[in-house]
TrEMBL record:
GO terms for molecular function: nucleic acid binding. Residues 1-62 form the CSD domain. It comes from the Bacteria. This is Cold-shock protein. The keyword Disulfide bond does not apply. The lineage of its organism: Bacteria, Pseudomonadati, Bacteroidota, Chitinophagia, Chitinophagales. SUPFAM superfamilies: Nucleic acid-binding proteins (SSF50249). GO terms for cellular component: cytosol.
Length: 63
């Protein structure tokens, strides 16, 4: 599990980005990878998978 902060999330379009707190890497997140509803500024835990365009956050939960 990784820890991060939601940098951007557009609930209407269903995607956004999480910044990994240990690496400062931006990770794409899609609504299909959410366990809890998230908003910008939320602290979350997540897992990473490689998507078509790079790392994608899955199993995203509020911390």
């Amino acid at each position: 599990m990784y820890n991060g902060v939601v940098k951007f999330f557009n609930a209407t379009k269903g995607f956004g980005f999480i910044v990994d707190t240990s690496t400062n890497e931006e990770i794409f997140v899609h609504v299909s990878g959410l366990v809890d509803n998230i908003r910008e500024g939320d602290t979350v835990t997540f897992e990473k998978e490689m998507g078509k365009r790079g790392p994608t956050a899955t199993n995203v939960k509020l911390a």
